Amino acid sequence: MPRPSLSTERPREPKAETRAEAERGSASLEFIVVGLVLLVPIVYLVVALGALQSAALGAEAGARHVARAIATASGPGEAQQRADDILATVNREYRLDPAGTAVAIDCRPATATCPAAGSTVVVRIDTRVALPFMPAIWGLDRATAIPVEAMSAQKVSRFWGES
Q1: Residue 58 contacts by C-beta under 8 Å, 6 or more apart in sequence?
Q2: Long-range contacts: 97-100, Cβ < 8 Å, 24+?
Q3: Lower CB count within 10 Å: N or C terminus of the chain?
């Protein structure tokens, strides 16, 4: 026979699991899943933007230094040698693909020989940046490559090539 209770409280039923106890351990699982879903795209974005920034800085530095080297050279032979040396250094330092980098040198106003004394040398460098981890199947690496171009102009001395 059940004992009568002197208390006014109702007798408690067997303890049911509280909501916190029922969800025990799911917070760490949710953190891992959500962390991976958010972290992987952010890391990829940082890597891709880093590659793009490197190529942009390399193209800009190459165009600027080649224009300056040509404008300050003493003659056409030295100008060509300096330009080649600078382009090789820029391609190596900024990890640009030498085969995929196009360099155009133009003079303004247009003259028969470029560069010419008193003209302005305009150097344009075009390259493409392949997105990281893009497979070469079906040409995805080429289709997703981002074009980068840089231009620089430098005034050539009116005494250029007279040495």
Answers
A1: 90, 91, 93, 94, 95, 96, 127
A2: 97/127, 97/128, 100/127, 100/128
A3: N
Q: What is the distance between the alpha carbons of residues 95 and 77, in angstroms, rounded to a whole number?
A: 27
The answer to whether 101 touches 150, Cβ cutoff 8 Å, is no
In terms of Cβ atoms closer than 10 Å to its own Cβ (0-12, 13-18, 19+), residue 54 is middle
| Residue 55 to residue 101: CA distance in whole angstroms | 10
pTM, to two decimals:
0.72
- Domain positions in the chain are 27-155
Q: Where are the alpha helices (DSSP H) in the chain?
A: 19-22, 26-72, 76-93, 140-143
Cα–Cα distance measured from residue 142 to residue 146, given in angstroms and rounded to the nearest whole number: 9
By the 8 A CB rule, do 59 and 93 touch?
no
Under a CB-based contact definition with an 8 Å cutoff, are residues 56 and 101 in contact?
no
